[in-house]
Amino acid sequence: MDSAQRVSHHRRMTITVSKPGVGELLRDWRRRRRLSQLELSIRADISTRHLSFLETGRSVPSREMVLQLADHLDLMLRDRNRLLLAAGYAPVYPESTLEAPELAAVRSAVRQVLRGHEPYPAVVIDRSWNLVDANQSLAVLTDLVDPSLLAPPANVLRASLHPDGLAPHIVNLGEWRAHLLHRLRRQAEFSGDPALAELEDELRGYPCRDPRPEHELPPASDIVVALRVRRPEGVLNLFTTVATFGTPLDVTVSELSIESFYPADEETARMLRGSRELVGIGR
């Protein structure tokens, strides 16, 4: 086979992978939300026939219709932009870097929350559970983690459950692991993000010395799932809250969350108040 024939052969072997159209994406999101065409059409105040035509590609949705359906499907801003692009429209939600000048007020608010939470740990994470920022008190947890797991982009779930991470120091590893995996699975199902599903598979492959059924009922005395971490000075007994921005219009801001740790008992509060001495913060 001469060079011209080889080129012709390679051209014939080229496979074109097309991106899904807006109708296919709408159908996928509707099914992911476990909605029938009737249920979504009622919510969006359109006919079932019209929705069917949109999903099959027989009709092209207007820009306003795309946004209307995306709203009733409760899509993240990133996925709303993706729907608009698939329909042939420009994205309407900007995606800035956190260092961008227009996000100065957001950065200031985040730093204020982190500083105000001292001496208790707090961390800012993105959509993929990567560490974005943290206050100094997080060191009471991270100083137990192998530094290689904290190299950017550090994934807080990986650092928590990896055998070289926090896992060997977690007293209730089975319970805490089940809690984190449940959160991750729900997020992966809701977002449809394959990277989150891959992360879940990776984390489930980590060894766990204290396996626990994920649907076991908690003891009646427990109010929240606590993270119990053994340090040389004693056991930290912590619970967490998660905060997000209320009305974001930027993709980056919409995917940020702040997880704050609180002491679940007075002994933990006392240890955290002395955390600067425990881990040498501020020295």
From TrEMBL:
Annotated HTH cro/C1-type domain residues: 26-80
PROSITE patterns (UniProt xref): HTH_CROC1
Coiled coil: none
PANTHER family xref list: BLL4672 PROTEIN-RELATED, BLL5781 PROTEIN
Annotated GO MF terms: DNA binding
Protein name: DNA-binding transcriptional regulator, XRE-family HTH domain
Claim: RNA-binding is one of the keywords in the record: no
SUPFAM superfamilies: lambda repressor-like DNA-binding domains
Lineage start: Bacteria, Bacillati, Actinomycetota, Actinomycetes, Micromonosporales
InterPro entries per UniProt: Cro/C1-type_HTH (IPR001387), Lambda_DNA-bd_dom_sf (IPR010982), MLTR_LBD (IPR041413)
Keyword terms, alphabetized: DNA-binding
Pfam families: HTH_31, MLTR_LBD
Domain of life per record: Bacteria
CDD domains reported in the protein's UniProt record: HTH_XRE
